[in-house]
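Hey,

Quick one before I head out. I ran the complex with thiamine diphosphate overnight. Inputs first:
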Amino acid sequence: MSQQTQEKMATGAALLLEALKEENVEVIFGYPGGAVLPLYDALYDFEIPHILTRHEQGAIHAAEGYARVTGKPGVVVVTSGPGATNVLTGLTDAMMDSLPLVVFTGQVASTVIGTDAFQEADIIGLTTPITKHNYQVRKVSDLPRIIKEAFHIASTGRPGPVVIDLPKNMVTDAGEVLEKAPINLPGYQPNYEPNRMQIAKLLKALQTAEKPVILAGAGVLHAKASEELTRFARMYQIPVVHTLLGLGGFPPEDPLFLGMGGMHGSYAANMALYECDLLINIGARFDDRLTGNLAHFAQNAVVAHIDIDPAEISKNVPTQIPIVGTAKLALEALLEKSGSKTNHMEWLVLQQNRKEKYPFAYKETDEAIKPQAAIAALHEITGGNAIITTDVGQHQMWSAQYYPFKNPDKWVTSGGLGTMGFGFPAAIGAQFGKPDELVVAIVGDAGFQMTLQELSVLKDHDLPVKILIINNEALGMVRQWQESFYQKRYSHSLPQSQPDFIALAAAYGIHGVRIEDPTLLKQQLQEAMDYPGPVLIDCRVIQSEKVMPMVAPGKGVHEMEGIEG
Ligand SMILES: Cc1ncc(C[n+]2csc(CCOP(=O)(O)OP(=O)(O)O)c2C)c(N)n1
Ligand SMILES: [Mg+2]
């Protein structure tokens, strides 16, 4: 080899780390093992911090939390075999909720792939349906290009997770350092610019509509289009319904805001979706938890759907005005000419009346803490400004109902996959992404136990995350469904024991607070929020409380139970 060629060689590890620097990666979440030992050796004195979680699932949910609050791809490194299979849930979760991730999975050396080598798993096969794209590195010199493409694919168009499977020798071997080539992905060309004819069609439909409504999803947040959404809704006086994941995209105090729609949405929101004659979906995917029985969903409406992903349009709901593009550019196009609406006063008044008459409500009691009261108190104490992550279950729905978000990108929850164990590690990632903000993980007593080992990460980094366990000593959402739909046969939803969460926190070196007296709720919660370091709050709440109102499975959005006026 000539002197000149040798100078242009580098190990795979060096190429990889250089590529991460070029992508301005701020933090890596991961867990080491045999197949990635050479990479971890390189990470030993690398300038980008690596956060050691205590389970790979913790690492990937942390990366998701980071991605949701920063808009940047979360980066994960795990070893081959079990390390890689431990991130499958997180990959699926990120895929469903369109979160950008770049996940490096170790792999056995390319020379033994296919021999059932120690800790070999077919990660390409396993992750193909649950990633936006995946790669297996076959040539060391390809690494910089693959990494550049992976970050590009993860964060453009409809964001999503990308896996890079790294055979061990692709990290240890040296490869040629190639001239940097621009990204060239002829098969991947997301369309950002909306079609002008469709925009004109929507504006025309708006002129004649008497019952228009906007359904705003997470696409608005991903596109950073909250301001445009707000201007558009106000310009034409269109009521706005949010999906679970879209919360924070529209100011909740605006009279046009009807709240969240869907299974545990507000009555006003769901009735608007039921009765509307023009439904403008911006960046939502018409999930079944939102639509209820499709036979009763927006049946008399002309449907317009703005989405970056053409595959979403007419997937679940027939759409007459398809607009493929980003929410931001589509809204900008809609805002180009100023306009107004005059023929739907009656509709607006109806919405206002319903909103006032049927707010989310629960009965207070002095005897024990109501879970809704705990979340409402947190909202009051934090002024609605905290970053809230949740786990999955009743507490998640109560958080959506009783913690209205004033600002975008403060709400981190597992929507599509509904992954228990998500909330706490997601808060860790969110705190790394936004070190100066108050981050609260609202979790259930059951879901928290799925990833609680990450308490060690709080200790390691003195990360001031606040964990609020809404402790109903139950798999609450399962219990609720069994009460409502399975004749109160509480099959395996009331665990026989649970740990002493305060002692558990102490074992990890974390400050713990138990709140059980409703008269002390606000004061103790305030103290916990003011505490300078990490805190675990075991908030004991009434077990029998149900999330209401509800569209029961199979019912239409207009058939809500538990409406109290
Ligand atoms: C990984 C996983 N397993 C099972 C479920 C089904 N599930 C949904 S909510 C729930 C109960 C959650 O209990 P808890 O965490 O205490 O929250 P709560 O509903 O009581 O607020 C279960 C088992 C799930 N969503 N995710
Ligand atoms: Mg519970």
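Residues 444-446, 472, 474, 476 surround magnesium ion (ligand 2) (CB under 6 Å).

Talk tomorrow,
K.
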